[in-house]
Amino acid sequence: MSSGAGRKGNVLSGLAVAAGCVLFLGGFVWGAVAYVPYTVPTSSMAPTVASGDRVLAERISGDEVRRGDVVVFEDTAWGDLPMVKRVVAVGGDTVGCCDGQGRLTIDGTPVAEPYVTEGERAAQEDFPATTVPEGMIFLLGDHRGDSVDSRNHLAESGGGAIPRDAVKGRVDATAWPLGSAGMLERPDGFAALPGGLSGPGPLRMLVFAVVAGAALILGGAAYGPVSGYARARRARETHNGVTHRRKGNVP
User: Fold this and answer.
1) What angle do CA 15, 20, 25 make, to 5 degrees?
2) Partners of 36 in the beta sheet?
3) Is 85 marked active-site?
4) Which of 79, 185, 201, 210 is the most buried (most CB within 10 A)?
5) Catalytic: which of 44, 147, 150, 198?
6) What own/partner pairs with CB < 8 Å and gap ≥ 24 does 223-227 have?
7) CA 55, 56, 57: angle at the middle one, nearest 5?
8) Pick from 95, 56, 51: nearest CA to 72
9) Chain segment 79-94, per-residue pLDDT in tens
10) Alpha carbon of 114 to those of 184, 186, 190, 233, 251: distances in Å?
């Protein structure tokens, strides 16, 4: 390799390391700003997330919440700790359970809920149709047979709903344990209702930035040792070839 090519390679490897550092560190900083980790305290959201799972919740304002979102919220009427539940109805909706097939209804329309524990009805016991006040949301756990949620607060002011501004984040993914790690999908059952579903958060882009940054850093850092080894090998081969030719010329 010529000295010019070597210098060019060193420059490119340096640029790769610099770009990798920007992506890698930028991804982590962006993630720390956009997301908050939470530990799920109960099994009320099984099988979507289990008790003790570590989840990543995107920081959002209450007005960004849509039906089907799994949210982290705090409300003193529900307890002193952050809780994780699924939003099934928003202000103006009339939510009830159950229809003839055991499904939740929104404004009289049944909603498909594939995330509910297999074999469970949308609620173990029917509850009367309730209109959610404006600016509030109605929440249920996915494990309907083992969840304390809006059904248990129907007699309170707001009919079991909580204010939108009680929401601290929207769960985008399970991060731990690794066997359960993955993105949470938005449920299609609410897609046709007014407002539709929430859009995906930036988590996939953050993961891509971190992985791409790590690859650039490793690739750029490896250039020096690899090119040095290649030069040394070529030098040995050249030296051995010259020596061999000289020996072949001895009478």
Assistant:
1) 135
2) 57
3) yes
4) 201
5) 44
6) 223/9, 223/10, 223/12, 223/13, 223/16, 224/10, 224/13, 227/1, 227/6, 227/9
7) 115
8) 56
9) 888 999 999 999 999 9
10) 13, 11, 11, 61, 88
pTM beyond cutoff 0.85: no
**How far apart are the C-alpha atoms of 95 and 169, rounded to whole Å?**
23
User: Distance (Å, rounded) from C-alpha 71 to C-alpha 219?
Assistant: 39
Amino acid at 107: D
Torsions phi, psi for 249 (to 5 deg): -90, -5
SS3 116: coil
90, two tokens = 């928003």
**Residue 165 scores a pLDDT above 90:** yes
Q: Which of 3, 51, 61, 85 is catalytic?
A: 85
Question: Which residue type does 30 have?
Answer: W
